[in-house]
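S1.2 Input.
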Amino acid sequence: MSIKLGYDLKIEQSQKLVMTPELIQAIQILKFNTQELDSYVQEQLLVNPVLEQASGDAGSGQDSGESGSRDDSFTETASAGRDSASSRKDDDFDWKEYIKDRQYDDISYRQWEDRNGEEKENTYEQYVFSDVTLPEHLVFQLQCATEKKGCRRVGEYIIESLDENGYLTSTVDEIAEATGVPVDKVEEVLDIIHGFDPIGVGAKDLAECLMIQLRYQGQLTELFEKVISEHLEDLANGKFGAIAKELGISPQKVQEMNDVIRSLEPKPGRLFASGADTKYIVPDVIIEKVDDQYVVTVNESSTPRLMVSSYYSKLMKQSEEDDNLSKYLSDRVNSAVWLIKSIEQRKQTIYNVVTAVVRHQKEFLDRGSKYLKTLTLKDIAEELGIHESTVSRSINGKYLQCPRGVFEIKYFFSAGVSGSHGEGISSNSIKEFIKEIVDSEDSKSPYSDQAMVRMLEEKGISISRRTVAKYRDEMNIPSSSRRKRY
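S1.3 Output.
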């Protein structure tokens, strides 16, 4: 019995979902926050010579119903990009024909030329400001405190040994060995630094930092020193009765000492610049109330405005006889327009999502945080006819500015419970009710979690005691025993 193996070749047709590089780029751009998008655009400006950043006031002339105004060249280039994307099924967009029809006397296209007749825009980047760091602040005081070179050298070594919170990271013996001076000399200089502003720098731990501050305030007593050195953890946990019993004083006295200690600065160094990059929140969307309606506009200043350089457009027109150059420029122009189209699509998606959020959360905008409703990604996705992942990417790391303040868009998406009338009540709204109850309670007899459950039920909110405790912990509100005042 023999088996014959076939070597026939067969052609089969099948459908597969393929993520093209352009689609991957569009998804990434949608997910980027403002800073990430700006960095990505700067990279593309470096690698794609055809791409150019448009100048002018990006935020002027916004229409309340649109995602913002754009100059003619930007709009036309983006429009051409849409045509290009739709025609890629067969072949690339014919940029030669497009460029032939362009009018190059358009002033908006000549971005590289010197505009002597136009007034230059003043920006914040023109003004240089540098925050003073903790080492700089302390070295300046050290120069004024002593003229001895030996003391300055030891003092500078101590200052360089401080962490960002102002705590000493080296022992006195290590500093003495490194600087070649006696230990008592190091302690003398360290004692001088303890008196520098901010008071408490140079301490080896939290207890010493607090005692230094009390000493320079004239409040350090033997009782304070004993409480800080032996009962600091119990003090943080609110065990006033146990401390009072061991020290033979009243719980009220312990609580008064706790109030004084809590008024001190546990991390004196954090008042100064750490040298790390400062991050600012730039709202992607602005919501304004016009008459009785809330109008959504995309913040144009947070979105890069790009265009195709007219220089390379002219060069492409002149490169008809050079196939390699023509192909290279066509690829670069197609890549540039796809990027412009992706950024435009990102703006439109964010605008659509936030507009839908405003429709759901209008009562929050009118009346405040207690009226925030439950909202899920699925609700918005079904309303807009898009996938949940698209909604997630469009709100990731993005912020909106409204009459109630600046919020991360994710803030408006939260689970919750059903109210007495069947409406959804957001967990953030419940937290606001709990905070309101705690703020209005008698400090000598604070409400327990079970008492707050009953009070919330009176407002039509039915949740368990465990849920109340969970929300209270998330807001850093202590338990009733720790909130009690004697």
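S1.4 Remarks. Confidence is low (pLDDT under 50) at residues 57-91, 102-119.
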